[in-house]
Amino acid sequence: MSRAAASRTVEQSAIRKVAIRLVPFVALMFFINFLDRTAIGFAGPNGMNDSLALSAAQFGFASGVFFIGYIILEVPSNLALHRFGARRWLARIMVSWGIVSLLFTWVWNFESLVVLRFILGVAEAGFFPGAILFLSLWVPAQYRSTILSLFYLAQPLTTVIGAPIAGLLIQADGFFFGLEGWRFMFFGVAVPAIVVGVIAWFYLADSPADARWLTAEEKTWLTSALQKERAATESATGKHPSIRGALGSGRVWVLCFIYFGFIYGLYALAFFLPTIIAEFEGLYGTTFDVFQRGLITAIPYLPAAVALYFWSRDASRRGLKTWHIAIPAVVGAVTIPVALYAGSAVATIAVITITASAIFAALPNFWTLPTQFLTGIAAAAGIALINTMGNVAGFAAPYITGAVADWTGGYEAPMFIVGGFMALSALLMVLLSRRPHTAGQPVNTDPEVLDKYNP
Predict the structure, then answer these.
(1) How far from each other are the two terminal CA atoms of the chain, in whole angstroms?
(2) Is residue 374 scored above 60 in pLDDT?
(3) CA distance linking residue 272 with residue 113, whole number of Å
(4) Where are the domains of the chain?
(5) Which of 114, 214, 246, 434 is most exposed by smallest CB count within 10 Å?
(6) What is the Cα–Cα distance from 314 to 333, expressed in whole angstroms?
(7) Rg (CA), the chain
(8) What angle do CA 391, 396, 402 make, to 5 degrees?
(9) What is the rounded CA–CA span in Å between residue 67 and residue 420?
(10) Which contacts (CB < 8 Å, 24+ apart) does range 353-357 have?
(11) pLDDT in tens, 154-194
(12) What is the DSSP-derived secondary structure letter of residue 208?
């Protein structure tokens, strides 16, 4: 075997091991993370809103206040991860939020719900950008879209699997020490976070050099490839990684606002889709039990997982193009308000399925962009800042949706607002790809082009 063929074999083996040994576990952590933060969406229309006497606006505020706590500590948490190592920090985050999630079992009024949601955000702060940064530090740029798409599959699958599970837990009304079903559901989704968080402390490794499951040749290849890529990026930008450079980057801020639109759409769906489905009974004369509602809620997310995988695979094969992100944003902008005028429960779910597929198809491809021109501590700060803006959307989406729904008496106007933000994301993505550089050169969003310009 030639030296080049041997090197290629080592490369393929190393990437395959990362995909098999590392990504599924981090995806499991993300699965539990997203289920815990969106569990309130299942609890609300299935007993919690009545038990706590919540209006739509109060439910929306309680759902969204989580993101205020998250936002406050987002960037500091990611910088701490960079300093102390992902293994310790991600495990610490997970156990912390698991303990807080457990306390939702005994929430007693609107005020206590708001306080716990805020503390949950503080506890979870930095997990998602930390996981993105962690995985980005394990594979070179050419494999990043594929690896992140495998990781991101956990998010739609959280609803595919998690919604029916939440429905079953809610149906176990009075089974556990007489707890109402929605309270038992909070208990049931919190315990896995604590258990998996403890396992993560021993299972994860901070870098390829620390991975016992890689051979010496695989460690050498991964470490060398990542070092060369980092050096090439710093050489191309002419700057060393810095927090100030990342937080002051115009391109990072444009990415912040693009991400805002996507996450606004994502959380409007995540928190209010179960409520909208519950209203089908009055609109269309149908009747669903809690488990059936969970299954219906899950329907849009299975095709979304398929769309995510194949859209990201296409981006990896062709090289990431502007339209890989802009087209899904346009599709989401058009379909999310149209869903409420579909005329039947089946047609509504079909249109929402297209919306969910569009949002999830774009997200893993989007997250390859900042790591193309940010490295080291700058990547930690930049990714955290972008995700912070997403969490602003995470607060704004449920609160504005609930408040406007109370004001207008329906969800039509709030969904047009969602569509408007997603349309803005598409526009900004196109403008970013055409933005002239200070030297008069165009800045594209293709990875091979991004590497050549200063942030």
Answers:
(1) 42
(2) yes
(3) 17
(4) 13-450
(5) 434
(6) 22
(7) 22
(8) 135
(9) 21
(10) 353/299, 353/300, 353/303, 353/304, 355/265, 355/269, 355/300, 355/331, 356/156, 356/269, 356/300, 356/301, 356/303, 356/304, 357/300, 357/303, 357/304, 357/306, 357/307, 357/308
(11) 878 877 787 778 878 888 776 777 788 889 989 998 999 99
(12) G
Helix (H) / strand (E) containing 131: helix 127-136
- pTM score, two decimals? 0.74
CA distance 138 to 147: 10
Which of these, 373, 363, 423, lies nearest to 250 by C-alpha position?
373
What amino acid occupies position 341?
Y
Give the tens place of pLDDT for each residue, 312-366: 888 888 878 889 999 999 999 998 888 777 777 778 788 888 988 999 899 888 9
What are the pLDDT digits (tens) for 239-258?
555 677 777 778 889 999 99
Residue type, 235: S
Q: Is the dihedral of CA 21, 89, 75, 137 positive or negative?
A: negative
CATH number for the segment(s) 13-450: 1.20.1250.20
